[in-house]
Amino acid sequence: MSSQTETDRSGPFDLLVVGGGIVGLAVAREAAAAGASVALVDREVVRGGDATDVAAGMLAPVGELDFGEPDLLKMNLDSASLYPDLCVELSSETGIETGYRRSGGLHVAPDADEAAVHRRMLELQVESGLDSRWLGPGRARELEPALSPSIHGAVFAADDGSVDPRMMALALEESATRSGAILLRGREIASLLLEDDRARGVRLADGPEILADETVLSCGAETGRLSWLEPDLRPPIRPVKGQVLELAGDPGDPICHRAIVSERVYVVPRPDGRVIVGATVEEKGWDRTVTAGGVHELLREAYRVLPEVAELEFLRASAGFRPGTPDNLPIVGRTVCSGLSLATGHYRNGVLLAPLTGRAVAGMLADGLDHAPGMEAADPGRFRSRAGVV
Ligand SMILES: Cc1cc2nc3c(=O)[nH]c(=O)nc-3n(C[C@H](O)[C@H](O)[C@H](O)COP(=O)(O)OP(=O)(O)OC[C@H]3O[C@@H](n4cnc5c(N)ncnc54)[C@H](O)[C@@H]3O)c2cc1C
Fold this sequence. Notes:
Layout (H helix, E strand, L loop, with lengths): L8 E10 L3 H12 L4 E5 L8 H4 L3 E2 L10 H25 L10 E4 L3 H16 L4 E4 L1 H7 L10 E4 L3 E2 L2 H14 L3 E4 L3 E7 L2 E7 L4 E9 L20 E11 L10 E3 L4 E4 L4 E5 L13 H14 L7 E12 L6 E4 L5 E5 L5 H17 L24
Parallel strand pairs: 1-2, 1-11, 2-8, 4-13, 11-18
Antiparallel strand pairs: 3-7, 4-6, 5-6, 9-10, 10-11, 12-15, 12-16, 13-14, 14-15, 17-18
Helix pairs in contact: 1-6, 1-8, 3-6, 3-8
């Protein structure tokens, strides 16, 4: 790392990213690839334990569509469209395979009530111009033979896919480093450096200052409670707990070939044979306990749609925190403090939205724009009327 006074000061970098989950890594990678000098600080010594680490990795702009969220749909679709080329680039740059697949998602109805819900969502998907269609039980089981014979049909969402978030983060990190980004892991931050009301980087808890022209905070759910950030600058983000299971299957004879989704559970196959069963959605604050009830619910619901899950080896159960926001949109863009931006609040879609966020934030900073292009609806300014927040 280039040093100003060797021991206690580094930089100034063009960009300092705080938080090295999938979002921070995507921002760092884009900026470094475009020629910016980049440093990234993360408090964990090794990657893991964050939302990226436990995420199922569904890339589901269609499956995540809900009434009244057209801005989120557009961002989700735009980001999904970046995935194929990005994964090819990452593979050729780093040799790391991300497990990306665009195999569609199957939204299965285990009973008549859920079939009615799926049909309503199908209408919305078709009205929104998405490539989705209803499959009767027989046709659905031709596509996925392990589905329960008692299902009432399914919606096939052709544009959904999946990726292994841990491998994606690893590849982004490797690519960012190859483009010259400096990664500092296992370092706590003590304070934000301010000069004439402009953010100039951070001071680390063990002393050194990292100076930067622009600082981006991407600490996931933690971004809402960073002790070293003035309360006025903390974004309105809350942790939304999700419990998830990892099972081991046979890669040569997978239990399913694409994400199988019902109202209460999803089952996502990985290319190496692992199967992810997720996820609970719990408003429990910072409680990270994996509960017997959570595991039971996930297995019971997975068994209803894919009975063969009972045959798979149980590898582990874990829990993580989605960074939830008041309107389910991410919070991406400049804050009222010049030199300080946010790339956070991606809630259920952070893996899906990472490529677009990386590109939008790096583009905003490189071109000196006021908003992150393509993510204007996610601008932090939408919360400003609420008690001066961000
Ligand atoms: C169970 C579950 C399933 C999910 N499934 C999907 C899915 O299928 N598809 C999808 O698109 N999304 C999914 N998500 C959501 C997705 O995981 C998140 O939106 C995304 O990972 C957020 O990424 P992030 O980089 O913002 O945060 P994180 O991945 O949480 O990373 C934050 C990083 O910041 C670091 N950090 C925190 N505080 C500090 C600090 N004070 N100083 C320095 N560093 C700090 C952490 O160490 C960590 O590395 C799921 C989430 C959960 C919990």
